[in-house]
Amino acid sequence: MVLRGYVPTSEETLQTLAALRLQSLNSDFSTHAPFPRLEELFPPHVLHARLPPLPHRPPAKCRGARLRAGLLAGGLWGQALAKQRAERDQRLRGRLREEGASTMAAIVEKWKLLQGMGRPEAMAAYVALVREWPGFGSTLFDVDLQASPVGPGPQRLWLGIGAKAVSLYKPGEPEPMDSFCYGRISSFGASDSSTFRLSVEDRDLLFETSQVDEIAQLLKTYLASAGAQRLPRPQEPPTSPPTLEPTVLPQGLCPAPGPWQHRPPVGSSHS
Q: Which among 233, 229, 195 has a CA at the least distance from the CA of 215?
């Protein structure tokens, strides 16, 4: 999850995590130690984020402009554009190699500082750093929150399923946009094969995702392990607007009413 970018933290911390992984794998620094590839130690998307964005090509404004663009693309102009793209791609690859070498050098310097640390200590230090994220212990899913009739378009989010709450994150942000303890969830389930519905009190949230079944099963597992008297009932793909029923959950799953009720802790205590 660290390598896939699902633990939002600073680049400095990511380098330290990579150094601890090297210490765990190879013990103390040595020029003869086998080096994993950088993408096995450090999230590749961090390096790609340093590269300049691709230039935006404005759309043609009329049929005549599209026709002229098509004619030009088929001749010398098209060849010139292809050459420019190839040169740009080569520059970007060179820049990516430079960034990778710089990052690996920084990781190695941190690795050298860990001399004498045993494998169990390195693993414990690694987990301790990751645990600093409040969402540690949650399982994250990539979802698209569907737009409301008056809202903006779909929004790409992380849906975090933890032992105490369901949370919504903007990708890469350490703090959740919103969190719902299980006592606030009245029902959940699949609206269809790619849409997951989560009903929280007086509102329905619809998520487009390829992992509908995995999300539903994980929610059931957490509620069952908490000893829920009656779980939120999974919904079948509706043929008519569903009727939601309130859910009876055991005491202790929700924080006491107060100013923090809408931002309960996200971290999980399970191993």
A: 195
